[in-house]
Amino acid sequence: MPRDVDCWVFDVDGCLVDSLTGTSLRPGARALLGHLGHESRVILWSAGGDDYARDRAEQFGVDGHVSGYFPKEGRDADGRYLTGHLPVDPRRAVFVDDRPEDLAPGLDVLSVSPYLSEDPHDHGLVAVSQRAGLPH
To answer: How deeply is 30 buried, as exposed, middle or buried, from its count of CB atoms within 10 A (0-12, 13-18, 19+)?
Structure first.
């Protein structure tokens, strides 16, 4: 785990949970969140709101690894999501999202391919696992 990172901020739909039906957790997500939750803080945030993010975490049994839930609320003049309401130091946080263009260019963002539907062969979280120091 990089020593300079103290928080991982994950988008929910299309990143951890399939965006078409919301019924499948991306392969590798459970192990990754478990590892990260022991080493640092994990935050889920969603355009669906904080309750939605919490509901998805509970649905898939990963809520025990999550430190907080927040909405994606408000956008800046360039159309990027505001992050000032998140309890993170942006210099020590990694954002994981399938829509990196929605985040400010100064943030540390790991882009993942969109997770659209259940796919047991999906490897979208490999780069995140590598950054976190997990074997893949």
So the answer is: middle
Question: Any bridge partners for residue 16, and if so which?
Answer: none
- pLDDT tens digit sequence for 50-70: 999 999 999 999 999 999 999
Kindly write down the DSSP assignment for every residue of the chain, as one continuous string: --TT--EEEEE-BTTTB-TTTS--BPTTHHHHHHHHHHHSEEEEEETT-HHHHHHHHHHTT-GGG--EEEE---B-TTSPBP-TTSSS-GGGEEEEES-GGGS-TTSEEEE-----S--TT--TTHHHHHHTT---
Q: Give per-residue pLDDT as tens, 21-39.
A: 999 999 999 999 999 999 8
Q: How many CB atoms lie within 10 A of CB 8?
A: 27
Domains and CATH numbers, the chain: 7-131 (3.40.50.1000)
Token digits for 31? Answer: 């192990």
**Structure-token match 């942006």, residue found:** 90
